[in-house]
Amino acid sequence: TGLSHYRFRLFLDSIQHMTHDLRVTSVPPPGPADLLRQHGVQVTAQRLAVLRAVTGRPHSTADEVADRVRSEIGAIARQAVYDALGVLVDRGLLRRIQPAGSPARYERRVGDNHHHLVCRTCDRMVDVDCAVDYTPCLNPSEDWQFEIDEAEGIYWGTCPRGRTSACALRVSAPNPPARAQQRPTNPRSIRCPTAR
Fold first, then answer.
1. Burial call 170-193: b when 16+ CB within 10 Å, e when fewer
2. How far apart are CA 95 and CA 89, in angstroms?
3. DSSP state of 162
4. pLDDT in tens, the chain (196 residues)
5. Which residues contact 178 (CB under 8 A, 6 or more apart)?
6. How far apart are CA 71 and CA 75, in angstroms?
7. Which residues pair with 127 in a beta bridge?
8. What is the predicted pLDDT for the residue at 57?
9. What is the C-alpha to C-alpha distance for residues 36 and 91, in angstroms, rounded to an integer?
10. Contact 192, 153 (CB under 8 A)
11. CA–CA dist 140, 137 (Å, integer)
């Protein structure tokens, strides 16, 4: 039993070392300032506030981001928000999406191949993951010798909230937004090249 006790003790010691190593090597995700630095972006209060605003509410328009930034840091020029959004998109920290007939929207989810679903009634936008383990949109029938690394698709429809009378009243207002009239009317008008 002495040998068994010794082996058991070695086993416990190895587990303690493994858990200690996990605690030492597990690093928390970088904060917003570190994230900016890692991407070579100068850290400013405006850029931090813009990054936090988009992270807190994906698919926001620049005006919505500006409103949130103003509530966090006070006065900021609309152009400063646009400039910060541009830098963050250029450096790969944010993604810019512009559905047909709608203002550009911004999200923090970058580096993966996902699409979006937009409600025609209430403008709600949600992420739609690409097919798991198979990405037909990255394999078009003709690639024209492009090296394709991303495909973008936008699905249009009406969300459950958009089918309620409250949202229907918003759209049936006397002067509906012009962008609502410019959207594709056929929900199948944007398709993957291979989905024929």
1. eeeeeeeeeeeeebeeeeeeeebe
2. 6
3. G
4. 555 655 656 555 665 555 544 555 567 888 999 999 999 999 999 999 999 999 999 999 999 999 999 999 999 999 999 999 999 999 999 999 998 888 999 999 998 878 888 888 888 899 988 766 666 666 677 777 877 777 777 888 888 877 775 554 444 333 333 443 344 443 333 333 333 3
5. 101
6. 8
7. 116
8. 96
9. 9
10. yes
11. 6
Q: Judging by beta carbons within 10 Å of its beta carbon (0-12, 13-18, 19+), is residue 53 exposed, middle or buried? A: buried
Confidence (pLDDT) at 131: 66
Query: Which tokens is 93 given?
Result: 């920290």
Q: Report the distance separating Cα 167 and Cα 125, nearest Å.
A: 14
Whose tokens are 């580096």? That residue is 111
Helical H segments across 26-171, by residue range: 32-38, 45-56, 62-73, 78-90, 165-171
Task: Please provide residue 30's backbone torsions phi and psi, each rounded to the nearest 5 degrees.
Answer: -65, 145
Give dist(CA 29, CA 8) in Å, integer: 36
Measured between alpha carbons, how far is residue 73 from residues 16, 26, 70, 108, 158 in Å? Answer: 46, 32, 5, 20, 36
Classified as helix, coil or strand, 138 is helix
Place of tokens 């007939």: 101
